[in-house]
Amino acid sequence: MKKFICNPILPFDEYIPDPEVHVFGDRVYIYGSHDEFNGRMYCENDYVTWSAPVTDLSNWRYEGVIYKKSDHQSPVKMEKNNMYAPDVAKGPDGNYYLYYSIADSSVISVAKSDSPAGPFSYYGDVQSHSGHIYGESKEDYFEFDPAVLVDGDRVYLYLGSGQKANEKNGHPVVGLFVRELGSDMLTAKTEPEILMPADDDRSQPNFFEGASIRKFDDWYYLLYMATDLSGLHYMMSRYPDRDFEHKGLLHTTSSSQLVDERSMYERYIVENNHGSLEKINGKYYIFNHRHTNQSHFSRQVVGDKLEMSEDGTFHQAAYTSVGVRGEPFNELTHYPAAMTAVW
User: Fold this and answer.
1) Which UniProt keywords apply (predicted)?
2) What's the pTM?
3) Which residues are tagged catalytic?
4) Of the options 2.115.10.20, 3.40.50.300, 2.30.40.10, 1.10.3720.10, the CATH number for the domain spanning 20-339
5) Is 217 a residue whose pLDDT tops 90?
């Protein structure tokens, strides 16, 4: 066991944003996009993953590259060499499925592996029962930031955008929507259902991007980044495909609430949040990313403890330097500057 735990969770030279954190077996896996130090655009690198025992969130192991940009064999070609925020789920067949999109595309691609640590191989693109690949027709909704839930023998794919600016890609931006997939994890069984319509009002916590889905007990939880740049908000429902109600702000690392943009923008980036919930060894955690190097493009995974109320709602978690440790540092010693919350 390594005694020291802080934010960011992984080594200071690792840049994994958009974290989707999942427990598979007795280990916790961090999936996400892959930025670069001093990067000039989002998500420049191949997908990698790290894992740790559920009983020791200080002992992270690098599992290596799980999916390369060169592995993308879809007919939808990669023009800008960027793979965006992925999610991973264990299918009914026991295999693991990685969902992702590429720059300037509205197609959701899928890769497959027999291990949560990869490597993954290209499997196909999300399609209709007739074989139409969603995102290839102009009438198809803009599909972005996939999130996947396997709920018993049913599979749900959540995705979308609230940014009307994304209509530059040639598809209608309708907000956050869900469709059910078949047991092949690839073919849609239902038409899309809009859960939160697109609304660019920056004074309200409307859906911007970054959907993430979890089920705890009988509640479904949908996380998303809000249009007002306040951070990660969440909704709850008793159903996976309808009746979600907004419950509030969960976590923020890069919020207009943290800084005065007029005086600090050049020193601390007010930008996107994207993260996930997970229950690990009986405790709840929120995972997000922070911005570093005075850049939009060098983001690192962070995490903090969450407290659940009896009604299933969560108290907002503070963004801290102690992270998933959840306790203050008591030692009188030197600490690395890179664990400073605003860095």
Assistant:
1) Carbohydrate metabolism, Glycosidase, Hydrolase, Polysaccharide degradation, Xylan degradation
2) 0.94
3) 18, 209
4) 2.115.10.20
5) yes
